[in-house]
Design brief:
alpha+beta; 10 helices; globular; IPNS-like_sf; metal-binding; IPNS-like_FE2OG_OXY; Fe2OG dioxygenase domain-containing protein; DIOX_N
Length: 372
């Protein structure tokens, strides 16, 4: 293994010769990811995974909060008008105040959710030599595997590996999907696209617009699956599974397993998102905050590292730059007024995504760059 298994460098003086870039390159060259470190039996995490003290100081006592994370049951939404109105109102309230909510009875069978999590586990736990075929930093590829998309630009690396698929508008050929999870990835993608369109109808109604408004804006035309694997960490108090960030899409639909770790920043407190069997987590993305002119909030969230694991999650990004499109997005004119002028300049999802990736997960919002 070419990566140092010690973090003794952290005790070195600022003038030390710790060569961060070469350490990152050596880690990247293994193409084995964080799981490769764990498989090698490390007991100390490499220095480049250690986050600044201010980012890891508030890990304890977090679940002792007075907040109750919103859970919305969609059962009967298409059969009962009164029930639909109440559900839309709850979605509006959650999107304005939390930027997050969990949904039950969303229409995707539990068996498919479980099979998808199992498929992602199998991908990450297969022989490294097979996974290496997919390892890439060329994010124009429709299918790929990597550890930390911003490995060389972020202040500290996150304790996770990722397999991703650009599903829409130009899906990969079946043989491009990893064989170990091919069938379930294709099936889950169909299910989540269908649910995503229903979700955008509800969000449109919650904005007081026609149900098709966000769909007609092409917010559901693209889909990217980002499937994370968070191995057990020997020093979880020093690093993060995913650093504080918001998402660069319209809406994210997250499938998580039963291991805790996801947290949302709500009223300046980190609140746990409890795993609920069969539920999906929904969150507002930056582009939805932009086009709703701050009515709906793209809220910062993170994933803690843990000595339990692996933790597995599948994030479905709706409306991210996964296809060439010149579609321009700006605050929706129906939501603007003399007292509520546009707060953001127009942009494309590609421009936004390019800026977001170049900036990396540095703890600040990419939205600030697009403010008027």
């Amino acid at each position: 293994m070419v990566v140092s298994s010690s973090n003794e460098e952290t005790q070195a003086s600022p003038e030390s010769t710790y060569d961060r870039k070469s350490k990152l390159q050596a880690f990247d060259n293994t193409k084995a990811g964080v799981k490769g470190l764990v498989d090698a039996g490390i007991t100390k995490i490499p220095t480049f995974f250690i986050h600044p003290p201010q980012n890891v100081k508030d890990f304890t006592g977090l679940s002792k909060t007075q907040f109750s994370f919103p859970v919305i049951d969609l059962d009967g939404i298409d059969k009962d008008t009164n029930k639909r109105e109440k559900i839309v109102e709850r979605i509006r309230e959650a999107s304005e105040t939390w930027g997050f909510f969990q949904v039950l009875n969303h229409g995707i069978p539990t068996s498919i959710l479980e099979e998808m999590l199992d498929g992602i586990r199998k991908f990450h736990e297969q022989e490294t030599e097979i996974k290496k075929q997919y390892y890439t930093r060329d994010f124009t590829k429709r299918v790929g595997f990597h550890s930390n998309f911003d490995l060389f630009t972020s202040p500290a690396a996150n304790w996770r590996d990722t397999v991703y698929c650009l599903i829409a508008p130009n899906p990969p050929q079946p043989e491009e999907f990893p064989q170990v999870c091919r069938e379930i990835m294709i099936e889950y993608s169909k299910q989540v696209m269908r649910f995503g369109r229903s979700l955008l109808e509800l969000l449109s109604e919650a904005l007081g617009l026609s149900p098709n408004h966000l769909i007609e804006m092409e917010c559901a035309e693209s889909l990217l699956l980002i499937c994370h694997y968070y191995p057990a960490c020997p020093e979880p108090n020093l690093t993060l599974g995913t650093a504080k960030h918001s998402d660069n899409d319209f809406v994210t639909v997250l499938l998580q397993d039963n291991i805790e770790g996801l947290q949302v920043l709500h009223q300046n407190q980190w609140v746990d998102v409890p795993p609920i069997p069969g539920a999906l987590v929904v969150n507002v993305g930056d582009l939805l905050q932009l086009i709703t002119n701050d009515k709906f909030k793209s809220v910062e969230h993170r994933v803690l590292a843990s000595n339990a694991g692996p933790r597995i999650s599948v994030a479905s990004f709706l409306g991210r730059d996964s296809g060439p499109s010149s579609k321009v997005y700006a605050p929706i004119k129906e939501l603007l007024s003399e007292n509520n002028p546009a707060k953001y300049r127009a942009t494309t999802s590609k421009e936004y995504g390019d800026y977001y990736r170049a900036k990396g997960l540095d703890g600040t919002s990419a939205l600030l760059h697009f403010k008027l």
